[in-house]
Amino acid sequence: MTLSLKEIQAPISSELVEFEKRFRQSMKSRVALLDTIMTYIVKRKGKQMRPMFVLLCAKLFGEVNERTYRGASLVELLHTATLVHDDVVDDADKRRGFFSINALWKNKVAVLVGDYLLSKGLLLSLKNKDFDMLEILSTAVEEMSEGELLQMEKARRLDITEEVYYDIISKKTASLIASCCSIGAASTQQSEEVVKKMAEFGLYTGIAFQIKDDLFDYGTSDVGKPTGIDIREKKMTLPLIHALQQADSSTRKMMIRVIKKDKKSKEQVAKVISLVHELGGITYAQEHLENYHQKALEVLDSLPIKSDDTALRGLLDYVITRKK
Predict the structure, then answer these.
(1) Residue 32 to residue 20: CA distance in whole angstroms
(2) 227-231 long-range contacts, Cβ below 8 Å, gap at least 24?
(3) Half-sphere exposure of residue 278, counting CA atoms within 13 Å on the CB side?
(4) 73-113: per-residue pLDDT in tens?
(5) Strand pairing partners for 94?
(6) Where are the alpha helices (DSSP H) in the chain?
(7) Yes or no: is domain 5-321 CATH 1.10.600.10?
(8) Where do the domains of the chain lie?
(9) For the whole model, what pTM was predicted?
(10) What DSSP designation does 174 have?
């Protein structure tokens, strides 16, 4: 039975409240404009899945402690910094239904806010000598930047193979979730082997998370009607890559011609979506999602866990069955 988000959060409910208090504190500034923007960011926070991964992974091996809270704050500070910068890069007006920082305060302020959040995360770790956790997350940020740039480079030519796709999503999406899980373990002074295993669990979880995201574009029965956003933005997702591999030469050329267009009609996008279904792209992606789900579970089964892992398994299930 799939757990609800509330049920997943139940074992760490008090820890999440404490984390939120500390996270707000870590963002404070004596500059009035910055403080106003930080308050706005806190109020529009999402589901907080990344701090949940940190806290739940720490609980597998011991008690949530000061280092765990700092690790969760570090993750959220650096993740929020990358989102603020992403909105500038993408010229996005909205995030999670709220106006973006750049939409309200313009690009120059948004870039400086992202820099400020980044520096707060670095200082939080350096002041407390959490060098191991800082190294884990700095490596993830490096990989996220590489993944984003690799995707941009490949999007120009639409020559993404499955191998390149997995390289991109491992760096761009999965590396951050991997760092959350390894930081959770590292915060309770686990061995290097265990920390690496938790990173592996997070990597597989993150890959499954991204494949699920890909499927939203095609409106399978469990995610609602098609959105076609990735197709409009020329993003090569796993269902599309597989469909192009299966298509005959003329169909492939037609699909690529549509994807390359800057302005696509609803009918053209709908046609590509229909072909991805017909050519088995959805089924193929769902099979791969389940494969990475199982890989993540196998890693958990191999670990010397000291407490109940039901909530973490529930979070893994939630990631791959969510509706949005």
Answers:
(1) 21
(2) 228/266, 228/269, 228/270, 228/272, 228/273, 231/258, 231/259, 231/264, 231/269, 231/272, 231/273
(3) 10
(4) 999 999 888 888 888 887 778 777 778 888 889 888 899 98
(5) 99
(6) 5-9, 13-26, 32-43, 49-61, 66-90, 101-127, 131-155, 162-169, 175-186, 192-216, 229-232, 238-246, 249-260, 266-278, 281-301, 310-321
(7) yes
(8) 5-321
(9) 0.89
(10) I
CA distance 195 to 218: 36
Q: What pLDDT does residue 223 have?
A: 47
Residues with Cβ within 8 Å of 156's Cβ and at least 6 positions away in sequence, in order, are: none
Q: pLDDT tens digit string along 8-41?
A: 998 899 999 999 888 888 888 888 898 888 888 8
176, two tokens: 């951050």
Length of the chain: 324
Question: At 262, phi and psi to the nearest 5?
Answer: -70, -35
Tokens of 167: 């390289």
**176 vs 148: CA distance, rounded Å:** 13
CB 252 within 8 A of CB 244: yes
Q: Which residues lie across from 99 on neighbouring strands?
A: 94
